């Protein structure tokens, strides 16, 4: 027999909702994962191009080795895919938390999930724009 107090609570507990509270992976993907991919993209691309085009502080017209464009393109495609996957994961985790979390869930977790989702989107766009620079630049820095 149910007591009136038990029948009024229609919100399932965390064990019935599939544990809607996010883990550190959910929060960290948007907050740190996608920005880390952007940092990896910028540092790797600039280091690779600087070493190929400006060895020993001497600018070259052509890079030190052939295939620099293909290497940079491959690196940027990898970063776009990885950053997009991270932003998608953060978006999915944020959406799941919004649907399944009760209104009385901790506010800081909700805030961090929202900020993580937004950072994932913003840095995902930054990754695409950084990759787009390759379309207007020749191998060693002159515009097309």
From TrEMBL:
Q: Which UniProt keywords apply?
A: Membrane, Transmembrane, Transmembrane helix
Lineage, top-rank taxon, reads Bacteria
Q: Where is the composition biased (Basic and acidic residues)?
A: 1-18
- Ranges where the record places region Disordered: 1-20
Q: Transmembrane segments in this chain: where?
A: 68-91, 111-137
Keyword match Transmembrane helix:
yes
- Name recorded for this polypeptide: Uncharacterized protein
For this protein's source organism, the top of the classification is:
Bacteria, Pseudomonadati, Pseudomonadota, Betaproteobacteria, Burkholderiales
């Amino acid at each position: 027999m149910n007591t009136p107090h038990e029948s009024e609570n229609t919100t399932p507990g965390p064990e019935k909702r599939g544990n809607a509270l996010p883990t550190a992976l959910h929060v960290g993907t948007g907050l740190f994962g996608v920005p880390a991919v952007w940092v990896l993209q910028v540092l790797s691309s600039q280091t690779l191009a600087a070493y190929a085009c400006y060895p020993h502080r001497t600018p070259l017209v052509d890079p030190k080795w052939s295939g620099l464009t293909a290497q940079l393109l491959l690196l940027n495609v990898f970063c776009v895919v990885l950053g997009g996957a991270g932003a998608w994961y953060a978006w999915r985790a944020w959406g799941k938390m919004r649907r399944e979390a009760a209104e009385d869930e901790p506010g800081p977790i909700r805030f961090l999930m929202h900020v993580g989702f937004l950072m994932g989107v913003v840095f995902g766009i930054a990754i695409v724009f950084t990759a787009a620079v390759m379309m207007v630049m020749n191998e060693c820095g002159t515009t097309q």
